[in-house]
């Protein structure tokens, strides 16, 4: 995938659909940045700010980014965005788990 141009441009947004009963949850995103700098983060439920965000730079292999969620989860959507000024390329897939057991995985193209 290629991000939109401009710092902060969203490339992917996935509703996590979590309820307040979850404890010890984390979202795992596996991706490989081919060019540029991407941010992978979780928004607040009102989408006005990030609960947390990780910066990812180009690597020759896939990288797993784990984003721990607050307990109980008070999280909005998963976001992948451009942290640089020009378009950037990446490939990836996502999953979420409870205590390291995979619960959800997405097919390529689900972004």
**CATH architecture title of the domain at 10-84:** Sandwich
Q: Strand sequence of the main sheet, in spatial order?
A: 1-6-3-4
From the 3D structure, determine the CATH topology of the domain at 10-84. Immunoglobulin-like
Please report the distance between the alpha carbons of the first and last residues: 9 Å
Mean pLDDT over the full residue set: 75
Percentage of residues in helical conformation: under 10%
Q: What is the strand content?
A: over 45%
Low-confidence stretches: 96-111
What is the C-level CATH assignment of the domain at 10-84? Mainly Beta
Radius of gyration computed on alpha carbons:
13 Å
Count the helices. How many? 0
Structural class by sheet pairing and helices: mainly beta
- Label the overall shape: globular
Largest sheet: 4 strands, antiparallel
Instruction: Report the strand count.
Output: 8
The helix-strand sequence is EEEEEEEE
State the gist of this model.
This protein has 111 residues and is mainly β. The chain has a domain at 10-84: Immunoglobulin-like. It has strands at 10-14, 25-33, 38-43, 50-56, 63-68, 78-82, 90-98, 101-105.
Question: How would you describe this protein?
Answer:
It is a single chain. This protein is mostly beta strands and 111 residues long. The protein has a domain of 75 residues: Immunoglobulin-like (Sandwich). Helix content is 0%, strand content 47%. β3 and β4 form a beta hairpin. The protein is globular, with a radius of gyration of 13 Å. The C terminus is likely disordered.
């Amino acid at each position: 995938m290629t991000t939109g141009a401009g710092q902060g441009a969203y490339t992917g947004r996935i509703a996590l659909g979590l309820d307040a009963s979850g404890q010890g949850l984390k979202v795992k995103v596996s991706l490989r940045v081919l060019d540029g700098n991407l941010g992978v983060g979780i928004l607040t439920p009102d989408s006005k700010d990030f609960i947390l965000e990780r910066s990812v730079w180009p690597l020759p292999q896939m990288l797993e980014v784990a984003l721990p969620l607050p307990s109980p989860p008070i999280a909005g959507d998963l976001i992948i965005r451009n942290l640089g000024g020009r378009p950037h390329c990446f490939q990836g897939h996502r999953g979420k788990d409870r205590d390291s057991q995979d619960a959800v995985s997405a097919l390529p193209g689900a972004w």
